[in-house]
Design brief:
The chain contains 15 helices and 2 strands. With 432 residues, the protein is an all-alpha fold. The longest helix is centred in the first third of the chain and has 32 residues.
Length: 432
């Protein structure tokens, strides 16, 4: 049987990372797309939905802790990052099965669903850390733009398609069936992690034949040493610039998670299943667009593209606010607005991942990249929590203006990013 080895086959690298990101998208589709609309339809308030969204997003900030652990501890005969991918996806499958079993007598309360969303996202975030570290480790420099487009496409297809599917399943069959279907989908992708290897000669499983591959930048350094390298890279000026940019961008996302479903279901009266279906179709469209822009990142540069799409995102939200205030909005108009927001958001996502990967030091890649993404995802929770505290007498459409302002600030901050100066600092550290 021919070994499926990531380091030797480009198509396998792209396909595997896309599949892993698709698995991350499944719980996002359930907990962040279908359930907010479903709970709103059942009578949950905007503050309750925003608080729920904030809590289930918090585990993505836990990656701050997971990265250094994954850089320090692994079972090298099975690969540098692969053992952690397998562990994380196993936990995700089990958490979804547990949700299904606990839903035997109906849909759990919003509090219980919040905790299940939290736990599932712990495993999903852990898989994300391991996958990102593996991608930085395995991908070639001239592949990252295209690979990130495929990865972003995979995650978007995951949460879009399963968001639409779970919206239908929740209304028609209930939470138990929905959670079981999610567990089966993630379980199939778990098999990919079992069958593939990072480098030739590695073990498929602990009891099979194989040995650890030689990895030049692999380190057996202590957690303290990893943390020391990590702190030095994070305080570089360009790291701070990008963290601030992503804080502003993700805070905008935190507002959107609560605003979009609440406006559609509570204000326009759209049924939750219809909302999830529309969001799913739009997500698939934006995933395809994001896939197309991958090669342009490698050619034009992530910084230039990122500034443009951040400003485009702000303009779209301002146009949406004007439309809501001065014209009659219906589902069709909201759909067009959401299509534009999603396409631009996908472009921001792809460009952001690419730009962060270029500033990581390889020997602590999982730690460094996970810190960047943890802070970004914590920002999303902050955005949701702050939006939950907006006074009830403030018109709901003003959320669009808040999002637009955050994206304009993010674009201004990005102007100051200088990738060459950061790369020189990283090279000095790697030479030590």
């Amino acid at each position: 049987m021919t070994e499926l080895v990531l380091s030797t086959r480009q198509w396998l690298r792209f396909g595997t990372f896309t599949a892993f990101y698709f698995a991350q998208g499944v719980p996002i589709g359930l907990f962040s797309i279908a359930l907010p609309a479903f709970l709103t339809e059942k009578g949950a308030s905007l503050a309750e939905i925003a608080t729920y969204a904030g809590f289930i997003s918090l585990p993505w900030a836990y990656k701050l802790i997971a990265g250094p652990i994954m850089d320090r501890f692994t079972y090298f005969p099975m690969g540098f990052r692969r053992p952690w991918v397998i562990i994380a996806q196993t936990g995700l499958v089990l958490s979804l099965i547990t949700l299904a079993l606990s839903s035997s007598f109906g849909t759990p309360s919003i509090l219980i669903l919040t905790w299940f969303g939290f736990v599932s996202n712990v495993f999903s975030a852990s898989q994300d850390v391991a996958t990102d570290g593996m991608a930085i480790d395995i991908l070639k420099e001239n592949e990252r733009g295209r690979a990130n487009a495929f990865m972003a496409c995979g995650q978007t297809l995951g949460f879009s398609s399963f968001g639409a599917l779970s919206g239908y399943l929740l209304v028609t069959y209930g939470m138990q069936t929905t959670a079981f279907v999610a567990a089966v989908i993630v379980g199939l992708i778990w098999l990919i992690a079992i069958l593939m290897r990072e480098r030739p000669g590695e073990k498929m499983l602990p009891w099979t034949e194989g040995e650890a591959a030689e990895v030049e930048h692999r380190s057996d350094a202590s957690i303290f040493a990893i943390g020391f390298d990590l702190v030095r890279t994070l305080i570089f000026p360009m790291s701070i610039v990008l963290v601030l940019m992503e804080f502003l961008n993700r805070a905008n996302d935190g507002i959107a998670i609560a605003f979009i479903p609440f406006y559609a279901v509570d204000v326009l009266g759209v049924e939750s299943a219809e909302y999830a279906r529309v969001v799913g179709l739009v997500g698939i469209l934006s995933a395809v667009v994001g896939l197309v822009i991958g090669p342009f990142i490698d050619k034009l540069g992530a910084k230039r593209l990122l500034i443009f799409v951040l400003l485009a995102g702000a303009a779209i939200r301002i146009i949406g606010w004007v439309g809501i205030v001065h014209y009659q909005f219906d589902l069709e108009t909201l759909t067009y607005l959401y299509i534009a927001m999603s396409i631009v958001g996908q472009c921001i996502f792809v460009a952001t991942i690419a730009i962060f990967m270029t500033i990581c030091m390889k020997r602590i890649a999982a730690s460094q990249f996970s810190v960047y993404m943890s802070l970004a995802n914590l920002s999303r929770s902050v955005g949701s929590f702050l939006y939950a505290r907006v006074p009830e007498n403030v018109p709901v459409e003003h959320g669009l203006l808040m999002m637009a302002g955050l994206l304009v600030l993010a674009a201004i901050v990005t102007v100051f990013f200088n990738p060459e100066s950061h790369r020189q600092r990283i090279e000095q550290l790697e030479a030590e």
